[in-house]
Task: inverse folding
């Protein structure tokens, strides 16, 4: 069911035009208008879910199974790209700006191509005891 004010639901329902790359019964992939790098594509489930926390295993299997197909098409279309960032932002703090789950496929060309990510290295702050406690806390919440 589409959310009334969701821009991605409107794109899925063809109420807003898009540059569609791929579409089937479950997903739609289209160009991100910002084109962080040439070939930047968004892949969205047609079912409105806000983020990864709302996926069930069937939806996850369906959506993520389409990622390699679209990624390969982008790579073939832009053979001068030397890599690809595939990312999903979940929640405002994680830079999600449209609250309909979407996966960014961003082809990479060089270190000055307009895309960047920074991963802090906090290795020195963690020892075996802290890492074991974190791992156990997550394992205890896996459920099914």
Result:
């Amino acid at each position: 069911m589409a959310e009334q004010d969701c821009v991605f639901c409107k794109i899925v329902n063809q109420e807003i035009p898009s540059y569609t790359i791929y579409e089937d019964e479950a997903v739609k992939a289209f160009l991100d208008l910002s084109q962080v790098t040439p070939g930047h594509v968004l892949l969205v489930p047609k079912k409105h879910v806000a983020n990864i926390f709302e996926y069930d295993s069937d939806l996850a299997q369906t959506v993520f199974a389409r990622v390699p197909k679209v990624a390969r098409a982008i790579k073939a279309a832009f053979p001068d790209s030397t890599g690809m960032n595939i990312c999903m932002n979940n929640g405002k703090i994680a830079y999600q700006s449209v609250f309909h789950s979407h996966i960014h496929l961003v082809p990479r060309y060089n270190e000055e191509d307009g895309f960047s990510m920074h991963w802090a290295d906090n290795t020195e702050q963690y020892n075996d005891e802290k890492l074991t406690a974190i791992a156990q806390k997550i394992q205890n919440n896996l459920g099914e």
